[in-house]
Specification:
This protein is mainly α. It contains 5 helices and no strands. It has 2 domains: 72 residues, no CATH class; 47 residues, no CATH class.
Length: 143
Amino acid sequence: MPDKGPEFRTWLLEEKKINPEAISNDQMKKSFKEFAEDYNTATLPHEKYYNMDAYEKRMAMVRAGESNLLEGLDTYDPNADLVAHTKGTKRTAVEKESYLSREQLEDLRRVQIEREQIGKMKLLGMAVGSTTGVRMERSYGDP
């Protein structure tokens, strides 16, 4: 509440037509909850209720005739939003090379198939060899 005090008081006066000096603390808290809800959901009726200082500076510039400095501030570029969104949702490049060689991958696939077969054989009550479905560690590239 201390951070958004000026914005809240202005909102109370202009939108709710309530004098902040004349209401109780409970009413003030209830009104601030309503203000905070509208603030957080970006549904306040005017931009000045979000940042009073920035609004006052901009209005002072307009009153002083420096409106040429403000050009481009209120424009909306949908393409910039689209670019920012696609950058955030792009998938990272998948590594093309595997850490394992083709032989190692084939060996792993063979062991996986054997393990699936063992599971099916056990379900049928068949005898399974002790080395079936086991991958023996060996260093590839050694003779």
